[in-house]
């Protein structure tokens, strides 16, 4: 059984176990004071699609209202570790949810609900004339990146190592790329914004970020053989007083209905 399927099976077991001990809240209008509110902490790269997720889920479950908060996955995981009141955590990796599981803060194993690919973006005018990922190592190119611990940083570093080992890439490519990083942002949304404002020449981001910002940035695709698959995982927070409803939402997101909404914004199925 692959990891994504195992996560979904584990999540189903969690829902059934909890539901056996608790009764789910009665359905009420989303506008009603009696509606169940779920606080969802989510990776910044999900910000654009979450509006559609909220609309679709609340439409199908009128007794639930989603309260959304986005930032880097690492920052949100830290807030939960420090006692922040969240019901569901949606991360752009498996590492941060795994940390919450290890700390006893999650109710069940992480559920993989989507995946993504990486790409390079440049400002619309492309002032540094970047036409290939190999150009990222040219002297003087200003690269915008995210901080340590932010999932896109780990994925980008892996991509750069893959490119460095690819035919046609110069010796010292990875080192030259690192030397060109001029800024470390709090999350991937801030990285995209800085490139869109031409405050840097390029950045490695998720493919969905490039698609969602197509009017502000230009995409420079990376070779398929070197690309990296980003895996998105979610957990229900153990301390949530709404664990049944939270597990129901995460199960929906990891299932066919959730995939249909995520796919419209370019997310790939769980990998």
Features:
D-Maltodextrin-Binding Protein, domain 2; 2 domains; single chain; 10 helices; alpha/beta; 271 residues; 10 strands
What's the gist of this structure?
By secondary structure, the chain is an alpha/beta fold.
Order of helices and strands: HEHEHEHEEEHHEHEHEEHH
In CATH's first tier, which class of the largest domain applies?
Alpha Beta
Give the overall average pLDDT. 90
CATH architectural designation of the largest domain: 3-Layer(aba) Sandwich
Q: What name is given to the CATH topology of the largest domain?
A: D-Maltodextrin-Binding Protein, domain 2
Please count the beta strands (DSSP E, at least 2 residues each): 10
Spans with pLDDT under 50 lasting ≥5 residues?
15-32
Radius of gyration in whole Å, from Cα?
A: 20 Å
- Our count of helices gives 10
Structural class: alpha/beta
Shape from CA axes?
Answer: elongated
Question: CATH superfamily assignment of the largest domain?
Answer: Periplasmic binding protein-like II
**Largest beta sheet: strand ordering:** 2-1-3-10-4
Helix content: 25-40%
Strand content: 15-25%
Number of domains: 2
What summary fits the major beta sheet?
5 strands, mixed
What distance separates the N and C termini? 12 Å
What does this structure look like?
The structure is a single chain. The protein is an alpha/beta fold. It contains ten helices and ten strands. The longest helix is centred in the first third of the chain and has 19 residues, at 3-21. The protein starts with a helix and ends in a 7-residue tail after the last helix.
């Amino acid at each position: 059984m692959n990891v994504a399927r195992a996560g979904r099976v584990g999540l189903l077991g969690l829902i059934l176990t909890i539901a056996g001990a608790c009764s789910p809240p009665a359905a009420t209008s989303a506008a009603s004071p009696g509606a169940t509110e779920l606080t969802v902490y989510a990776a910044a790269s999900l910000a654009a699609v979450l509006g559609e997720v909220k609309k679709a889920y609340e439409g199908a479950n009128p007794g639930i209202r989603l309260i959304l908060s986005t930032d880097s996955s690492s920052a949100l995981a830290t807030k939960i570790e420090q006692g922040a009141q969240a019901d569901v955590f949606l991360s752009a990796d498996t590492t941060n949810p795994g940390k919450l599981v290890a700390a006893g803060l999650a109710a069940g194993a992480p559920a993989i609900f989507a995946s993504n690919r990486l790409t390079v973006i440049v400002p619309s005018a492309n002032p540094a004339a970047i036409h290939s990922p190999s150009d990222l190592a040219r002297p003087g190119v200003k690269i915008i990146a995210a901080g340590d611990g932010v999932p896109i940083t780990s994925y980008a570093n892996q991509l750069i190592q893959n490119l460095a080992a690819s035919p046609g890439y110069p010796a010292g490519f990875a080192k030259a790329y690192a030397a060109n990083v001029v800024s470390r942002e709090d999350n991937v949304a801030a990285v995209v914004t800085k490139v869109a404002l031409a405050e840097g020449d390029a950045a490695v981001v998720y493919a969905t970020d490039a698609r969602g910002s197509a009017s502000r940035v230009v995409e420079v695709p990376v070779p398929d053989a070197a690309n990296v698959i980003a895996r998105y995982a979610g957990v229900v927070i153990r301390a949530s007083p709404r664990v049944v409803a939270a597990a129901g939402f995460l199960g929906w997101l990891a299932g066919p209905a959730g995939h249909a909404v995520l796919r419209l914004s370019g997310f790939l199925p769980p990998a």
